[in-house]
Amino acid sequence: MNRGRWGWGAVAAAAGLAWVAASWFATGLDRPRPAAAGGITIPRGATAAQVARFLTDAGVFAHPALARLALSVTGLPGGPKAGTYRFGAGASARAVLDAVGRGAVEQVRVVLPEGLTAREMARVLGAAGVTDPVRFEALCYDEGAPGRWSLPGPTLEGYLFPDTYRFARDLAPEEVVSALVRRFREVTAPLMPEARARGLDLRSWVTLASMIEKETGVPEERPLVAAVFWNRLRRGMRLESDPTVIYGIPDFDGNLTREHLRTDHPYNTYVRKGLPAGPVANPGRESLEAAVRPAPVSYLYFVSRNDGTHVFSDTYEEHRRWVGRYQKRRR
Fold first, then answer.
1. Residue 331 falls within a domain, yes or no?
2. pTM here?
3. Least confident range of 24-38, 174-188, 189-203
4. 140 with 282: CB under 8 angstroms?
């Protein structure tokens, strides 16, 4: 008899708990949770128990058991998505679970300027917390990497499009590369017929565009610089571009010397004719356009005015006069 009373009591208690849980889920999931304001980070591979603890510590749920129950009842497709999430004051538990289920992670705005190398991009992305800079750089210069994205060449240099992006934090390097290459393809696809019409394959086109990008940051000068390079190529002249020489110097210290210009390597366009071995930076849209749309001029030379702009010349004699005026002799 006593056992019967205790048995019925346990059933009644369980029913009561179930009623409380049901009542909470009916209203509690949508109730604003002031303590939830802030953020939560779910690492890759986190278990359901760990996610429940993260949600509890963030103030979304009062107890991990409730969080576990909520996760199972709401049935997030594919489970909680890894990443960092930010919530405003008063976010409900349902809103938090919805965001975690959809993978609506916090994103950071990253500006990758034109003319950066992959190594320089790695530093920018690493500083923003987007990806591991060492792993990103290693991937970009891995000889097998271009093939993974169906691109020519031994590295990804030149194919990482400079632009403003919004990225989640702590992404795998492959995810970031895929985004940059996808944007590169979006920009270059409409221009590719013009490149082919000029006899350029993708790698040669991007190489020429990268040289233009590194030579000038003035938009109206890019077609002029492109014209100089095209005119010299037609005449069989060496391109004599300082940025190509610099790219081939390990740990360049900023001081380009005459010895550097005389030292042969695959990127030295003072020694070798034609384009360098590959891109020397990642060019933007304007330089890619200039490479296939050079200005209709006969210039063969240009020299910096030391203010970001250049003087262009048709003859070597005229060029020497401008060099004497604007440039100090190299050691």
1. no
2. 0.79
3. 24-38
4. no
